[in-house]
Amino acid sequence: MEPSGYLDRPDYRVDVLRQRNLVRVTHEGVVLAETRAALLVAEQDHGLVLYVPRADVRSERLAPSDHTSRCPFKGRARYWRPRDGAEPVAWEYPEPYPEVAILRDHVAFYQDRTVVQIGTADPVTSAPAPRP
Prior knowledge:
Layout (H helix, E strand, L loop, with lengths): L13 E5 L2 E7 L2 E6 L3 E5 L4 E6 L8 E10 L3 E8 L7 E3 L13 E4 L5 E7 L11
Antiparallel strand pairs: 1-4, 2-3, 2-10, 4-5, 5-9, 6-7, 7-8, 8-9
C-alpha cells in the first residue's frame, strides 16, 4: 500500500459522522441504495459526501467500472457504474488508510450523477416542545 498523505500533512481533516437519517440514492428513478446508517464525510478540501453501508447498496443494480483512483488521505478507490451504463456513479475504498478505516465496506455516490435524498431520523429527536 502506498504511504498515507497524513505523513506529510498530519493536520489534514477527514471528519466522519454517523447519521440516522434515511438516505436514499436513485439513478434514473431506480433505487441504488437505502439506509439509516450512512456516514457523512466532511473532507477538508472537498464537499460533503454520504457513504452507504455496502449491505444497504443494491449491488445487483451496479457493475464494476474499470476506473480507479487514489486519494492520499483515504486510499485507492474502485468505482461502480449502473449495469446498463458506462459512467461511474459510485466509489468505495476497499482498503482505506487506518485514519479513515471506518469507510471500509461503505459506498459513496456522485451527487451530480445520482439523486441523493436525505430524510428524517428515526426516531425524530428534535420535535417541538408541547405547548402548555
